[in-house]
UniProtKB/TrEMBL annotation, chains A, B:
InterPro entries: ArsR-like_HTH (IPR011991), HTH-GbsR_regulator (IPR052362), HTH_ArsR_DNA-bd_dom (IPR001845), MJ1563 (IPR026282), WH-like_DNA-bd_sf (IPR036388), WH_DNA-bd_sf (IPR036390). Transmembrane segments: none annotated. This is HTH-type transcriptional regulator. One of its GO terms (molecular function) is DNA-binding transcription factor activity. Belongs to the GbsR family. CDD domains: HTH_ARSR.
Amino acid sequence: MNYDEAKTKFVSTWGSLGTLWGINKAMAQIQALLFISIKPLCMEDIMEELKISRGNTSMNLRQLMDWGIVTKVIIPGERKEYFTTEKEVQELARVIAKERSRREIKPVVKVLKEVSSIADDGTEKTKELIKQTKALHDLTETADDMINKLVNQKQNWVTKSLLKLIK
Amino acid sequence: MNYDEAKTKFVSTWGSLGTLWGINKAMAQIQALLFISIKPLCMEDIMEELKISRGNTSMNLRQLMDWGIVTKVIIPGERKEYFTTEKEVQELARVIAKERSRREIKPVVKVLKEVSSIADDGTEKTKELIKQTKALHDLTETADDMINKLVNQKQNWVTKSLLKLIK
DNA sequence: TCAAACTTTCAATAATTATTGAAAGTTTGT
DNA sequence: ACAAACTTTCAATAATTATTGAAAGTTTGA
């Protein structure tokens, strides 16, 4: 496998993993492309490499910037804008996890709390609903906390030592 | 909020969370419904509660059974089939994480390993590709390992004490 | 072995989500 | 103030994914 093959393989695989953290293919691919690029890229570069339209590129770059993963770079003497991505995987993971938690997990935890707090009218079905949603609430909240805490540890040794602990 | 409101809210919220673990809405809703039901339900019950078609119900039940989350229950004297879901949240989380890892994370880890193992031809761009995909490989693999290990600990105290550790 | 009771399959359709491309908007140098 | 160089917006369209419903399949009891 040569450089170009490896690059294409990486970009498309990382793109398809997008769903795993709730972003679309193009967005994930743009990030992947920037992630392995040795210099900032402009819109043309990205459009050409990924064969996507200008509008698509613009919209997805915007979202990546909103997330704080991609930043605009101004190159003196150049009119057009260039882009780079966060190069530290640890930091990348932090941002993604944080965003995911905020957008998707937190609202669910909130609903679970509400539902598990309804008045116990004494019927078996209500008891079951309360019991099960409470269990789900605890699990979800704990998992969310853990992910956030883990991912906020910037030093990699924490992850490694934890992993050893639970082996 | 009374029982029926709470139930509807829970089922639809849990359904929309489906994307988070890579299953579709109907599948997540069926599971949610069974999760708070005090007795096994048949296809009619599910169709009626969720207002979905017979075909949809059948296909999604099948997939839930393939995942090992839902099991068929035979009620003596009854012709039709009944279904229940795993009621332990811990076990539920285990199955979901395992499935997700197998279907989505493992293949990506494999590709990252391949890509990061290409020959270093000495160019800067190749070095960068290798370096970055290697970092991603390590992170992804570590995260995957952690999730699997954590989720395999059936006792809840492990999670709790770990959480304390990293607070 | 038949028919009633039930489940599965799958082509057609609907719903959702991503992408395009061209017009409108913005910025910059002269 | 203008025009060139660039970016953004968004309605239209395409691609993808989920859902339906009816026909085919299966099981069971008499």
